[in-house]
Amino acid sequence: MKIFKCFIIAAISSIPTFAFSQQFTYFSYEEGGYTGKMLVANELAHGSPVQPIAVHIQTVDTGTHHECDVWAMENTVARIQSNGEISTSMRVVDRNKKATGETFDITIGKSAAVITSSTPSEYCGLSGTFSGHWVRSQEEDNGDDKQEAEQDAL
């Protein structure tokens, strides 16, 4: 009976952490002939263990209309959080493509995010990029696309 009570208490106490961990924030991108949007999951998550940040990045070359579509998951041991900013390393993961071990760095602040990568993305080709300055934006207007992207991020 004592074990059962402990299990119930643990289960109830994990509900707020789970619910809070499924928050989404949005960023937009316009730089060097590219435009894009980024969905960030778990940026605001708290708790133990740390919920890894996940991102879905989509950019378009406005000249050639070449599209870049990248999914990435945080390496939580690389996270540095101070003064309202999160700096971390992201590993590109895509269930539709072979894993290459590609990584990039991201710093997320109150109004913007900066992505840096030492090499062009293998998933985007030479004519696609997502490195640069991203501005925090409001949730997407189209509810269907938003719900689909959020469900994919989970």
Summarize the structure.
It comes from Pseudomonas cedrina. The protein is built from two helices and eight strands. By secondary structure, the chain is of the alpha+beta class.
Overview of this structure, please?
The structure is a single chain. This protein is an alpha+beta fold and 154 residues long. It has one domain. It has an 8-stranded antiparallel β-barrel. A hairpin with a 2-residue loop joins β1 and β2. The protein is globular, with a radius of gyration of 17 Å. The N and C termini lie far apart (35 Å).
What is the gyration radius calculated from CA atoms? 17 Å
The helicity comes to 10-25%
SS-based class = alpha+beta
Fraction of residues in β-strands: 35-45%
Number of strands: 8
Which sequence of strands runs across the widest sheet?
1-2-3-4-5-6-7-8
Number of helices: 2
Distance between the termini: 35 Å
> Unreliable segments (pLDDT under 50, ≥5 consecutive)?
3-21
Number of domains: 1
Which term fits the overall shape?
Answer: globular
Overall mean confidence score, pLDDT: 78
**Biggest sheet details:** 8 strands, antiparallel, barrel
Helix/strand order, N-terminal first: HEEEEEEEEH
